[in-house]
Design goal:
The protein is mainly alpha-helical. Helix content is about 55%, strand content about 5%.
């Protein structure tokens, strides 16, 4: 199996990667949605680079094989049966995994497959752009802190979003900024974490806003305001 097809198989066919099995304690649980989303986001970015290179090199047959595998994977995921029963080596494992949780991750995988199929179907040399991540600005915030900071900006009316622009705004944040621990973040992570910030995140942003308020007082009383080096 060539490296391109192997990557497709790794991303979309090995469903066991979504589960965490603790053999010693006999427990099983589904991976965190945001973790799966981040892994898929990183892997999709890598696969896009491969597809771009293959287009440039004229590897049409290999590209068609990838497209066929993607379409098959999408069909399998769309038709998946979510009735689950865990019985490993005749030993019962504890853990409740709701079908809705698996459906969420399944739909996430379908979303990324559709994104890759769109790249393949709409590629042309006239409009082609290298899908390597563009330069983004570093941030001292976590993903959740970034999401909450921008959420506040919207609610305060600093940024005004027209109807149905929220997704584009999440995409803009994800492509334009790095969190303090991730160089690449996904718009889904920004979206998910903007809805339920933790008390620690709220307090962190509140402290920074208070510090910014103090800065405005200093700036007001200053003869000249300079950028901090």
């Amino acid at each position: 199996m060539d490296r391109h097809n192997a990557l497709v198989e790794y991303i979309f066919k090995n469903h066991n990667l979504d589960f965490i099995v603790d053999v010693d304690n006999k427990t099983i649980q589904l991976k965190d949605y945001d973790e799966v989303n981040q892994n898929l986001f990183n892997e999709i970015a890598e696969l896009k680079k491969h597809i771009f290179t293959m287009f440039i090199n004229g590897e049409d047959i290999a590209i068609n094989r990838i497209k066929s595998k993607l379409e098959t994977s999408r069909e399998d995921l769309a038709e998946a049966d979510f009735g689950l029963k865990f019985d490993v080596a005749n030993e019962n494992f504890e853990g409740i995994i709701e079908p809705e949780q698996i459906l969420e991750i399944n739909n996430l995988k379908i979303k990324y497959i559709d994104e890759l199929l769109s790249v393949i179907n709409n590629f042309s040399f006239e409009t082609a752009q290298d899908p390597s991540p563009k330069a983004s600005f570093k941030s001292s915030y976590t993903v959740e802190e970034l999401a909450y900071f921008f959420k506040l900006s919207i609610e305060q009316g600093i940024f005004i979003l027209d109807k149905n622009q929220k997704t584009k705004f999440f995409d803009f944040i994800a492509s334009s900024f790095q969190s303090k621990d991730k160089k690449q973040i996904s718009s889904n992570s920004i979206r998910n974490k903007s809805y339920d910030p933790s008390p620690a995140t709220i307090e962190k942003i509140r402290e920074d806003l208070l510090q910014m308020l103090q800065l405005t007082k200093a700036h007001r009383d200053s003869d000249k305001i300079e950028w901090k080096k």
